């Protein structure tokens, strides 16, 4: 197995059981998000972005021996995208980097979206900057990865179901390897 893929897989084996302020584990959340992407016909890059969008939380957990500080924003979207940028193209990393901005955007632009948020998502919204200003909305809409970030964020919120079973994390390893910059 490629070294990067091996490291990512190990990260989810070691820390993916953590529920991180939701009702389901990080690995369940990741695989549900990827399953929604796949079902929507998303590209391999966007499907892997969906799978790894919260890898920043796992990197923080790994750094702090599995403990979490919920009082401060861990900036997991930037952390995860930065970590992955050494190995994956922008089709994977940009939607990850923008998925928190997409949440703020959707809460601002879509009247019905806030009510769909999980308790964990509501709790973190303020720390992440709350609603967007008009200027922020306009700037975000101009981003070349705007629509994939919004799509990812919609799957993200849908990927918190306690009762469904989806394809396991390992079933994406081959697709992950396929999307790497250099194989
Ligand atoms: Fe996230
Ligand atoms: Fe998420």
UniProtKB/TrEMBL annotation:
**This protein is called what?**
Unannotated protein
- Tell me the ranges covered by the HD domain, including all copies: 28-88
Organism lineage? unclassified sequences, metagenomes, ecological metagenomes
Q: Pfam families attached here?
A: HD
The protein's matches in CDD domains, at most eight in alphabetical order, are given as: HDc (cd00077)
């Amino acid at each position: 197995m490629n070294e990067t893929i091996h490291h990512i897989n190990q990260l989810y084996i070691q820390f993916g059981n953590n529920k991180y302020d939701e009702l389901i584990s990080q690995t369940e959340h990741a695989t549900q998000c990827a399953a929604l992407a796949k079902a929507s016909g998303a590209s391999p890059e966007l499907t892997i972005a969906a799978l790894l969008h919260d890898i920043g939380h796992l990197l923080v957990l790994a750094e702090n021996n599995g403990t979490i500080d919920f009082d401060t924003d861990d900036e997991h979207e930037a952390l995860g995208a930065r970590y992955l940028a050494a190995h994956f193209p922008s089709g994977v990393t940009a939607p990850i980097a923008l998925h928190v901005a997409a949440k703020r955007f959707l809460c601002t632009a879509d009247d019905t979206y806030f009510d769909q948020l999980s308790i964990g998502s509501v709790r973190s919204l303020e720390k992440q900057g709350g609603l967007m200003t008009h200027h922020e909305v306009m700037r975000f809409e101009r981003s070349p990865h705007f629509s994939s970030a919004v799509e990812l964020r919609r799957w993200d919120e849908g990927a918190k179901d306690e009762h469904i079973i989806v394809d396991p994390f390992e079933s994406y390893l081959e697709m992950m390897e396929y999307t790497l910059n250099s194989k």
